[in-house]
């Protein structure tokens, strides 16, 4: 257990798998029985010496069962799946934005591009949900944190914190690019902000998933380029393509 209700699990693939990209996800069968029947999607959080880590919060039956696994247990897993975050351009100043558990894939991105000195804006409900601060600092990133109740960092939502930052720091010669993951309400507000400041970027989207491989059409969202499957054409989409 990482903090109350949040868990980190390290998995060692029994067969060689493709190295996941930040934003890729795995479908995890939390048990061998029929209940729960469907695999659950989790973003890759870290990749260390051919092992990978998932960071998750217990919200229901599947994640509860997962939290009870012991070292040495085997899990049936599919992945890495989906399209991950594309690499930033050389001239970009990267802005990472995470809301709540969106920090799981955003950490993977931060670790991948740490040499580009990304900025990180991280919002949670309250102090007890704030995680990975030391891990980000060890990457050389000092997170700008906000909590809804002001118990850690600034008070209020992280999109407003970013808005104030952008007003004070207009786009430098190296233009900003956003990478974000979090609750839909945060991403929608961030999309408005990005359009106001003319900033491009990418969001990792979440939808309930049944198959995770593009066949059930259960995860379709509307985009400006038609309907797209979050598991196959996503979960990462350019901001301007998403219809809210
Ligand atoms: C591409 C992708 C990547 C994901 N990455 C992560 C991750 O890195 N870490 C992580 O903790 N979770 C992640 N999720 C969400 C995770 O898949 C769900 O939390 C999990 O499937 C819940 O399973 P469960 O059986 O415990 O809950 P269920 O019994 O399926 O649901 C229990 C309750 O939780 C709610 N719930 C289910 N899914 C979500 C969700 N996505 N967000 C909020 N509430 C939900 C349900 O509406 C229900 O009320 C990701 C989802 C997607 C689509
Ligand atoms: S989860 Fe089945 S198509 Fe995406």
Spans with pLDDT under 50 lasting ≥5 residues?
none
What is the CATH-assigned architecture of the largest domain?
3-Layer(aba) Sandwich
- How does the overall form come out from the CA principal axes? globular
The succession of helices and strands, N to C, reads EEEEEHEEHEHEEHEHEEEE
User: How many helical stretches?
Assistant: 5
Total strands: the figure is: 15
Q: Which structural category do the helix and sheet elements fall into? A: alpha/beta
Major sheet characteristics: 7 strands, mixed
For the record, what is the CATH homologous superfamily label of the largest domain?
Answer: Nucleotide-binding domain of ferredoxin-NADP reductase (FNR) module
Global Rg: 18 Å
Examine the coordinates and then state which fold CATH places here, giving the name of the CATH topology of the largest domain.
Answer: Rossmann fold
The main sheet orders its strands as: 10-9-8-7-11-12-15
Bound molecules: flavin-adenine dinucleotide, FE2/S2 (inorganic) cluster
Number of domains: 2
- N-C termini distance: 35 Å
**CATH class category name of the largest domain:** Alpha Beta
Q: Roughly what is the average pLDDT, rounded to an integer? A: 95
User: How helix-rich are the residues, as a percent range?
Assistant: 10-25%
Question: Please, could you describe this protein's structure?
Answer:
- With 244 residues, the protein is α/β, with parallel strands linked by helices.
- It folds into two domains: 6-81, Beta Barrel (Elongation Factor Tu (Ef-tu), domain 3), CATH 2.40.30.10; 93-241, 3-Layer(aba) Sandwich (Rossmann fold), CATH 3.40.50.80.
- 19% of the residues lie in helices and 30% in strands.
- The strands form four sheets. It has a seven-stranded mixed β-sheet, sandwiched between helices. Strands 1-5-4 form a three-stranded antiparallel β-sheet. The protein has a three-stranded antiparallel β-sheet with strand order 3-2-6, with no helix packed on it.
- Strand 4 and strand 5 (51-57) form a beta hairpin.
- The longest helix has 13 residues, at 184-196.
- It is globular, with a radius of gyration of 18 Å.
- It starts with 5 loop residues before the first strand and ends in a 6-residue tail after the last strand.
- The mean pLDDT is 95.
- Bound molecules: flavin-adenine dinucleotide (FAD) and FE2/S2 (inorganic) cluster.
- The site of FE2/S2 (inorganic) cluster has 12 residues, from loops.
């Amino acid at each position: 257990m990482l903090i109350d209700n949040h868990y980190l699990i390290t998995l060692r693939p029994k067969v060689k798998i493709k190295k996941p990209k930040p934003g890729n996800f795995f479908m995890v069968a939390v048990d061998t029985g029929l209940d729960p029947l469907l695999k659950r999607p989790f973003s890759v959080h870290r990749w260390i010496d051919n092992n990978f880590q998932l960071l998750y919060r217990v919200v229901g039956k599947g994640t509860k069962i997962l939290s009870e696994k012991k070292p040495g247990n085997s899990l049936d897993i599919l992945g890495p799946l989906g399209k991950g975050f594309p690499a930033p351009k050389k001239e970009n100043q990267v802005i990472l934005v995470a809301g709540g558990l969106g920090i799981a894939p955003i950490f993977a991105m931060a670790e991948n591009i740490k040499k580009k000195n990304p900025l990180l804006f991280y919002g949670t409900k309250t102090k007890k949900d704030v995680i990975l601060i030391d891990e980000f600092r060890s990457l050389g990133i000092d997170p700008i944190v906000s909590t809804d109740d002001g118990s850690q960092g600034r008070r209020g939502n992280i999109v407003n914190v970013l808005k104030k930052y952008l007003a004070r720091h207009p786009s430098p010669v190296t233009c900003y690019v956003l990478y974000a993951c979090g609750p839909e309400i945060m991403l929608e507000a961030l999309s408005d902000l990005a359009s106001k400041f003319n900033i491009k970027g990418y969001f990792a989207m979440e939808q309930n998933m049944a198959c995770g491989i593009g066949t059930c059409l259960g995860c379709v969202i509307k985009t400006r380029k038609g309907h797209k499957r979050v598991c196959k054409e996503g979960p990462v989409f350019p901001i301007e393509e998403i219809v809210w």
